[in-house]
Design brief:
By secondary structure, this protein is of the alpha/beta class. The protein is 46% helix and 19% strand. The chain folds into two domains: 187 residues, D-Maltodextrin-Binding Protein, domain 2 (3-Layer(aba) Sandwich); 117 residues, D-Maltodextrin-Binding Protein, domain 2 (3-Layer(aba) Sandwich). It contains eleven helices and ten strands. The chain is elongated.
């Protein structure tokens, strides 16, 4: 009897040790919740619905998109950071939620690096320096000359303090030695309206996607993109870096999971999402929205994210920018 109990106990221990591995091998066995830390209809939400269908079919499950908006993406990100690392909760992360906010907010409830497992980069979108069609500024050099020669005479709008549009202006000032006046609005729609109406804004470093229709309609003139190289979406528009070497900003979108996600699940999840992003049909849809398709491996995304956190920490500290 004693020997039988020992054998049974040993079998139970062995089974318990094998259960996590078996669970990983069988993953997924239920729907995956995809947290969008912004409102419905925004870029992060649209991309979540764009890249998940093909991955869902390959994984034999479904993705449930759940919007948890608030605090510049911090509310939803905090939820994901505290979720179980079992592969059933992931999220769309952005330059704001996973690079800028940690230096911008005095009390962020999560660490964007330590609390997350990078999965893959969905894609990136440059901001684009735009002015009204009747603006006296014809080139990036014109804006630099005015910002340096007549400091404080140029108003640049943004969709809010700490956004990539705002920080593009801050970085531009730091790189040129010029001085402009920041005018924050609540959204891109409001700041673009202010620019086109001539009420309160002379220039904007706007996301490419919302600015593109107005550029095509002839209402706005594009002077330069903030990416280090020209965008394939607007190849005739020069990169600001052609005038200011070292100037480079892209608003990026990626996928993250809670830290501690087992490597087999990381590999399986990232593999299928990368295939989806690189699928010709999906790529075409991304490009149509002004996004350069990504597809980074988890290691590549992790290294990129760390460099972005460091970069924006320097810019925000130099600009003495804080949001409570």
């Amino acid at each position: 009897m004693h020997r039988r109990n020992i054998v049974a106990a040993a079998a139970a221990v062995l089974a318990a040790s094998l259960m996590p591995a078996l669970a990983q091998d069988r993953w997924p066995t239920k729907p995956i919740t995809y947290i969008v830390p912004f409102g419905a209809g925004g870029t992060t939400d649209v991309l979540a619905r764009l890249i998940t269908p093909k991955a869902a079919a390959a994984l034999g499950t479904s993705f449930v998109i759940e919007n948890k908006a608030g605090a510049g993406g911090s509310m939803g990100s905090d939820f994901t950071a505290k979720a179980a690392p079992d592969g059933y909760t992931i999220q769309g992360g952005t330059i704001s939620s996973h690079a800028i906010n940690v230096s911008l907010y005095s009390k962020l409830p999560y660490d964007p690096i330590k609390n997350f497992q990078p999965i893959t980069m969905i894609g990136s979108m440059p901001n684009i320096l735009v002015v009204r069609a009747d603006s006296p500024y014809k080139t990036v050099q014109d804006v630099i000359a005015a910002a340096k020669g007549k400091p404080g005479t140029i108003n640049y709008a943004s969709s809010g303090n700490g956004t990539s549009q705002h920080l593009s202006g801050v970085f531009f000032e730091q790189m040129t030695g010029g001085k402009m006046v920041h005018v924050p609005y609540k959204s891109s729609a409001e700041s673009l309206t202010a620019l086109m109406s001539g009420q309160g804004a002379d220039i904007i470093f706007e996301n490419l996607a919302p600015a593109l229709p107005h550029i095509k309609a002839g209402k706005l003139r594009a002077l330069g993109v903030t990416s280090e190289k020209r965008s394939s979406v607007v190849p005739d528009v020069p990169a600001i870096a052609e005038v200011l070497p070292g100037f480079g900003i892209v608003s990026w979108q990626a996928v993250f999971a809670p830290a501690g996600l087992p490597k087999p699940v990381v590999d399986k999840l990232s593999g299928e999402l990368i295939k989806s992003i690189q699928d010709p049909e999906t790529r075409a849809k991304l490009v149509a929205q002004g996004i350069e398709p990504g597809g980074m491996t988890p290691a590549e995304l992790g290294a990129f994210q760390k460099s972005e956190v460091d970069k924006w920490a320097r810019v925000i500290k130099a600009g003495n920018i804080k949001v409570e």
